[in-house]
Amino acid sequence: MDLSSEPTTAPLPKTCVVWDPALTAYNFGPGHPMDPARLALTADLAEQLELFSRGSVHRAEPFVASDVQLSTVHAPSYIAAVRSVSETPRELPEWGLGTVDDPVFPGMHEASARLVGGSLLAAEAIIDGSAQRGVNFSGGMHHASRDRASGFCVYNDAAAAVQRLLDSGVRKVAYLDVDAHHGDGTQSIFYDDPRVLTVSLHESGLSLFPGTGFANETGGSAAIGSAVNIALPAYTGDGGWLRAFHAVVPQVTRAFGPEVIVSQHGCDSHREDPLTHLGTSVDAQREAALTIGMLADELCEGRWLATGGGGYSVADVVPRVWSHLIAIVSGKPVPVRTEVPEQWRQRVRAEFGAEAPRLMGDDVELWWRSWQVGYNPADAVDRSIMATRKEIFPLYGLDPWFD
Prior knowledge:
It comes from Arthrobacter russicus. Keywords: Acetoin catabolism. Residues 32-327 form the Histone deacetylase domain. This protein is an alpha/beta fold and 403 residues long. It has one domain (11-396): Histone deacetylase domain (Arginase, Chain A, 3-Layer(aba) Sandwich). It has helices at residues 37-48, 67-70, 76-87, 108-128, 157-167, 184-189, 238-256, 282-300, 318-329, 342-352, 380-392, and strands spanning 15-18, 57-60, 133-136, 173-177, 196-203, 227-232, 260-264, 304-307. An eight-stranded parallel beta sheet has the order 2-1-3-8-7-4-5-6, sandwiched between helices. Helix 4 (108-128) packs parallel to helix 5 and helix 8 runs parallel beside helix 9.
């Protein structure tokens, strides 16, 4: 069912959307998969779809997070190391800096801290009530841990936003991550904090970086059950991906009972992404965002902060997925049959010499088996789902076979 077709009379939620071209300064250089053009293209597509001009949307420019703000989730010695290589570029592999994944560049600290400032800005808007929801599609740097850069991520903006919400008095935050890669950095930062639920739906670490995120990673001794991991086999497509999402994420999130949801929407699970081995569509990723939005309305009075993340099909996939995300968070989804504006397609032709998609969706029929129809032990996706449900569901009083 396409939820965007359902009429609504409810007012659109006040939404803080973070964007400024300065965010493209987060740039590891030519040839690196994390091409900042994906951000500029997303902003341009969202602009042409008139998402920024919605009356409920306030577009805000991010600030550069201070060392004090960064130190809520990162070690001061690590921040000092990032500052150092930012001023004098060199390799510091003990901090994950100067590697193939995270090459250093002049201004790295400021560019990375600006991403954090964007997510903090959106979190602050939710805290002070000036917005019910926020989007920082430039953020979602979920591999950065407390004292190390990793996987194209220097500072963890999503973790900083979660911590800011907690420090403001929010009692429970659910962090939901649908990136193709395990959200290892965010999980590690909150592994012993029972106030934070981290849920990651990703390709198995047996076939993809960072090699973690298995069902038996369930939280530290002080927070058992607070980490939830669904590790999917390579080549899982829409049906399996959505079955896994709907068999775990809503149930655990409801049982946890968050006051705010923070989500990470890396779109590298798409079938055209060059770095991963999953096979989802834009339509499936849009469906997951719709469900997260419904959970925010049901459990959190609508309070929801969404970030971007991975995604390396720069023109074909990322701008469409994150434009859908902006539309959904701001309360009025864009139908998948919407035509991509011709002016935007012309920009893609001029800059990339390629034909951009004609529609905002991938023209697929979404269907997945509900968990209620039964478990198939011969299905690798079902085995992955059951591994997670067996580890986690009893901790919340849920039956892994039936709930």
